[in-house]
Amino acid sequence: MHLPVIMSDSIYVSELFSSIQGEGMLAGHRQVFVRLTECNLECRYCDTEFKKSDIGRIESKPGSACFCDIPQPMPLHAIKDIIADWQTQLPGAHHSVSFTGGEPLLYADLLAIMFPEIRKIIPIHLETNGTMHLALAQLKQHVDFISMDMKLPSTAGCTDQLWDIHTLFLREAQGCEVSVKVVVGESTDMDEIDRVCDIIAMVDRDTPLFLQPLTLPDGSIGIKVPRLLCLQELASSRLPDVRVIPQMHKLLGAL
Q1: Cα–Cα distance between 10 and 76 in angstroms, integer?
Q2: 254 DSSP 8-state letter
Q3: What is the structure's pLDDT at 253?
Q4: What residue numbers bound the domain in which 46 lies?
Q5: Is the pTM of this model over 0.90?
Q6: Which is it for strands 10-11 and 74-75: parallel, antiparallel or unpaired?
Q7: CA atoms of 12 and 238, how far apart (whole Å)
């Protein structure tokens, strides 16, 4: 059976690899990661190279950390074929495939084509900065899990203008299994956590909230435990499911 011609369309992939999810609701699960290029934000703490390039890195064997270069952009059917092959090689090893970035929703038109095909093989997890609700509407029916960031001015350096955009996004994400993640640092104040809780409580207060301690460039944690616990206490007084999880993949030394 031939793939639909439209699956010959191409997309810019920075990396494609197999590893342990280190953040949020699916932390601890092994996933296939498809990291796309480009982002609509410039967060202060971002440690990911997301600019377009003529070359992407693809793991030669899932979990090997050995990469080969592959020309970009990459055909949609090639991504699907790699995921299908890895599922055959390692049956049951991967919980889901995580599309991350950059900001994957910048490619919503292409993902809306590709996701239904990939979802026949494995569940789909979307990692997003939570700012593109109209793009999400194009493809959310093909998504199983959404990990949504809310960007705090204290850590991401983004403006207060994102609060209303995050609200629209969380509303649009309803119907999927969605969670919210915020990166918190020593300068994160109680008002920011209150704003996050206000948004979640207004849309669905049962949405899990993950407080992720800021990881500094040298690998150390950018918030002291007493301050972290104060933020957790406030959020837990407002919402029923609040968890603190550092970037576990970095602690493991994983990709």
Answers
A1: 5
A2: -
A3: 64
A4: 5-252
A5: yes
A6: antiparallel
A7: 40
